[in-house]
C-alpha cells in the first residue's frame, strides 16, 4: 500500500486516466454453458460478444475523475518524544503550515502537551497537505475521566486552520474474544486483540480454579464476553479500567471452567460466580498486584542483600515502580508508614485474626484506621528499604504466624450468592451462554 499511495500522490491524473481508458475500451466476452449433465461435453457451446457503452458523456466523466482529490487517512498515537514535525512526518504528511499551527495555536498545542498516547487520526490529500487532525484522549477534568473523553479537532479551511476542543461521553460496547495459549496469557490475549485490563480480570476471575503462574498449559483455550469503553466508536487504550469482563470460559488442561460477573440489585455489590451460582470470589485474592511476575516465592532462597540462605516468609511480585497495589481482602489499616528494611509498608487487619503486609512501596495511599475493601488500591510498587529492584514484598499472617499467601487465598471461604438474587442470576447466565458459544466459534480468528 505504501508504494501505491506514493504513486497515487505523484501521478493522480495519470492514474485516473489510465483506469478510465481501460474501462472505456473494454469488451465483455461471456462464455455460456448449460448446467453439468452426464454428457455436458457434447452440448453445443456459443460465444456471445457485446460492446459496453458508457452512460453519459465520457469526457465529462474523465474530467470529474481527474479533478477528484484523493484523501489519505492514517491513525497513530502520540509519543513522549514527538514534536509537531516528527508526528506529521510519521503520519505521512508534509505540511509546514500545519506544523507551524500545531506549534503556535494555544488550542492546537494541546495535541503534544501532557501525557503521550493520544489517539490521532490525520487526513491529507495526495500531496501530503493536511486537511484535518482529530485527537482523542482522557477528559481534561480528572473527575470525568472514567465517563468522558476530550476530542481535539483541527480543520483546514479557506482562511487557514482552526482548532476546537470538546468533552464528550464515552460509550460502552459489548465485545467478544477468544484465544489459545501458546506461551503466556497476555501473549494470547494480545494476539486476539483483547485489552490487558480484560486479561487481568480473567486471571482474577479464575484465580480460585487455576494457578496462572504454575498450571497454565500450552493449548489451553478461553472465550470472553466483555464491555469496553469507546470514544467515537474506537476502543480507548489509555485507561487500564476501561474494560469490564462480563463472562468467561477457560479450558485448562482439558477441564472447563465458566464464570460470570453479577451484581445484585439490593446490595449493589458485584462478584464473579460460576454458572452454578457458586461464588468465584474468596475472602482473599491471590495477587495484590494484578497478574504480575512472581520473582521469589514462599520458600528457601539466597538473600540478595544478606548473602545467605534464608526462609522467604512471603511472596515477591516483580513490577515497574508505580504499579498499583491492592488489598487482597476487606479489613482496616493497622499500620501505614516506614519500617526499617521494609521501607514504606502497609499492614491490614482482616477477620479471623489474619493480617496482610505490603512492603517496599513507592507510595502509600491509605491511613491508619481506614476501612479497606477487597481490591481497593492502597499504594504503588517501589524499591524502598532493603530492595535491589522494584517489587512488592507481600506477607500473610494467621494468628501471628507467616503463611504462604497463595495457599491461604485458594483455601479461603467463598462469598455466597444471596438467595433473593438467584432467579435474576439464572436469567443472566442464560443470556451470556449464547455469547460465549459465539466467541468460542471465533477461536483462532482474532475477530471480535
TrEMBL record:
UniProt-listed Enzyme Commission number(s): 3.4.24.-
What name does this protein carry? M23 family metallopeptidase
Origin: domain of life = Bacteria
User: What cofactor requirement does the entry state?
Assistant: Zn(2+)
Pfam families linked = Peptidase_M23 (PF01551)
Q: Which organism is it from?
A: Roseateles agri
Q: Which InterPro entries match?
A: Cell_wall_metabolism_enzyme, Dup_hybrid_motif, M23ase_b-sheet_dom
Keyword annotations for this protein?
Answer: Hydrolase, Metal-binding, Metalloprotease, Protease, Zinc
Tell me the ranges covered by the M23ase beta-sheet core domain, including all copies: 311-405
Molecular function in Gene Ontology:
hydrolase activity
Which SUPFAM superfamilies does this chain map to?
A: Duplicated hybrid motif
On whether Coiled coil is a keyword of this UniProt record, the answer is: no
